[in-house]
């Protein structure tokens, strides 16, 4: 009886791009700082100084994983804050020199796009580069867009919906040569891909712990020495005066542990995930009138993104949830609105197709059996939904033409 019940509650988590389960090493690293070592690192007594030592230690370990110095690390409340602070800082530096042009791409995270929108209202000019159908931008296109008044290029490392990995090193080289600050939102890449900010000419990088099995509400803005950061939050002198507020020591320790673990297991995890990913892509490609979003190779090891013609993404997700599969559509961040994903529109998917999207993002905990179960479930659900869809009837009868052949 009990085992049957357990079975019916078994869940398959394939939404790791939204957030990840915390790893044991991260939890273990946090506990002592919630219980015994709870001092404020700004306090002069021993309890405070122990916390301050932990902070120094975590900063050094995180810097080592990114190829920067400890001084170049600023702790933030997550990826969104890091993106905001990076972009606003570069804009303020540019403004002083009369440079008010920023280059980015059409498929950035909203933390970037909405910050750029705000700057636009303050008189900045924003160039959003088109993204190719394969979900990539090129360094040559970035170079062509650079003007004498360009103060910042911000291009994400890996896209959170379709998983495509951008030629960050090449873009960094172009920006370095032209003397333009280069920021990358690496929230989806850190812990999953090998990163070295110095070698890759990255001036500023954002990361978030909860995307690599660390705690939520903590992240890093890594900014090259010499780049003056602007404060988003005023107050105490924490983070060298650039980010006020008592440091979240437990979360910072959890983040350091999760990052070290992810980097130590990176090759092994990537290999495993790539094989699961490709198996899933092969399986879902068999569904008629389906298309993989983003380049098949230049994508995150764990990302699978599809569009299915004649399907409404939200129904697909709810029925998959009933079958125990946690997935996402392309439009997780715009849920509550009926607008299709800006990412899918950016790669040229038309509205009807963009509405039928499915993102499955895997972790090293997923198994071959789970992948088989996901393939079977998606096939069943797509078939069921098409069976009750008037649009599908029109497509099959030839009244409407298929867009995905
Ligand atoms: C999740 C995510 C963010 C936001 O990070 P938070 O820590 O949740 O604020 C920013 N950019 C990308 C690409 C993301 O995937």
Description:
The protein is an alpha/beta fold. It has 2 domains: about 25-265, Type I PLP-dependent aspartate aminotransferase-like (Major domain) (Aspartate Aminotransferase, domain 2, 3-Layer(aba) Sandwich), CATH 3.40.640; about 265-395, Aspartate Aminotransferase, domain 1 (Alpha-Beta Complex), CATH 3.90.1150.10. Helix content is about 40%, strand content about 15%. Strands 2-8-7-6-5-3-4 form a 7-stranded mixed sheet, with helices on both faces. The protein has a 3-stranded antiparallel sheet with strand order 9-10-12. Helix 3 packs parallel to helix 8 (about 250-265), helix 4 packs parallel to helix 5 and helix 6 packs parallel to helix 7. The model has no long low-confidence stretch (mean pLDDT about 95). Pyridoxal-5'-phosphate binds near residues 83 and 185.
